[in-house]
Amino acid sequence: MVDDSKTSKKQVVWKAVKRTTGALATVALSSAGVPPAANAAAKVVEVAETADNAKKIAAVGAGVVTAVAATKLFGTKKQNFLEASPYYDQSAVPVNTWKNKAPFTGKVVSTKRIVGPKATGETCHIIIDSKGDYKFWEGQSMGVIPPGNREKDGKPHAVRLYSIASTRYGDDMTGKTSSLCVRRATYWCPELKAEDPAKKGICSNFLCDTKPGDDIVMTGPAGKVMLMPEEDPSTDYIMVATGTGIAPYRGFIRRLFVEKSPAAEVYKGQAWLFLGVANSDALLYDDEWQEVKENFPENFRLDYALSREQENKKGGKMYIQDKMEEYADEIFNKLDTGAHIYFCGLKGMMPGIQEMLKGVAESKDLDYDEWLKGLKAKKQWHVEVY
User: Is 327 a catalytic residue?
Assistant: First the structure.
């Protein structure tokens, strides 16, 4: 972590500028009318008149997707205008405000590919303008109704649910946008030895093909199972994801470490992220995680499982359960002392994880079923898979 007392303000500022104008930090640049990197850098320097502002720049870094948003943030209001009272009170969490027969229509701000050329498939980050009318909390999902009708019966397409990949304040921190992390679903036909467009994912392809200004018909928000229990600021969070299951955790991490939210101001626990993907090019939001890790080394941990690049202790591919097993004692100890554990991603991730946890429990002379039952009774176990 940078010691600002020993690092000049100018050095801190320019270090942050490089991150803020990095490749993944340009998620919304093309549609937001942001100036070139040099002008963006100049704007950042303008607000870095004090050491305090320099620290703010370093802390936010690539988490803010436009230099304009960063400029607006410094010296302005905190992210506290969409909070309950007290901020951790979940009695009025919005659920299904917008329904299938009365949905909300948002506008696409930007759609950007966020994986490298060697990634297994295409994943996009999509920012949607809702003018502040689509309110949600971190950990909830958004329903999307793709345009058109089903071929088999001519009826409208069904709603698809996607975990929201931003905080309630959105990537620009105005409270008027939301974000999705979507992987384009394709089908490889072994007979044709090519992708079969007739079997591609209707909604994911629609979303990944959207352009600024396109309409997105939305329902929800849905769900409460993935909410963070924020009443105790010392709570540890263990977040386990495969692929786009990273989405809700981006909201968690931004709320705890990037924004000036009530939760961030008091948080003193540890958030530990496990992400499993195929290779380095498939990593999602890595620049943001590295920034948080550098600025909050005691409060944020990060571990990747790269199945095509790493080996587990048995010499096989490194899957998410293998990476977790390396820290099994710590995970169990944290859970024993009140940590909350979250799982999000493809449902196929869970059998391997549960088999691993069961094996660890047995090695500790624990009855796995009773142990898991206890976690669920205390609401420490959160699962959202698809």
Answer: no
Catalytic residue among 134, 162, 285, 319: 162
Q: What's the CA gap between 267 and 82, in Å, rounded?
A: 18
* Among 9, 19, 21, residue whose Cα is nearest residue 53: 9
Out of 163, 178, 179, 307, the active site residue is 163
Catalytic residue status for 162: yes
Q: Tens of pLDDT along the chain (386 residues)?
A: 434 433 333 333 334 444 444 433 333 333 333 333 333 333 333 333 333 433 333 333 333 343 334 434 433 468 999 999 999 999 999 999 999 999 999 999 999 999 999 998 999 999 999 999 999 999 999 999 999 998 889 999 999 999 999 999 999 999 999 999 999 987 655 665 566 565 678 999 999 999 999 999 999 999 999 999 999 999 999 999 999 999 999 999 999 999 999 999 999 999 999 999 999 999 999 999 999 999 999 999 999 999 999 999 999 999 999 999 999 999 999 999 999 999 999 999 999 999 999 999 999 999 999 999 999 999 999 999 98
Residue 46 annotated in active site: no
The dihedral formed by the CA atoms of 280, 285, 287 and 293, expressed in degrees to the nearest 10: -100
User: Which residues, 6 or more positions from 304, have their beta carbon under 8 angstroms from its beta carbon?
Assistant: 274, 275, 276, 277, 283, 310, 323
Instruction: Indicate if 298 belongs to the active site.
Output: no
Q: How far is residue 248's CA from residue 139's CA, in Å, rounded to a whole number? A: 5
Residue 15 three-state SS = helix
Contact 348, 321 (CB under 8 A): no
Asked if 194 and 188 touch (Cβ cutoff 8 Å), the reply is: yes
163 as an active site residue: the answer is yes
CA distance 165 to 181: 6
Write out the two tokens for 333. Answer: 């100890």
Question: Which positions ≥6 away from 61 have C-beta within 8 Å?
Answer: 16, 19, 20, 25, 287, 288, 291, 295
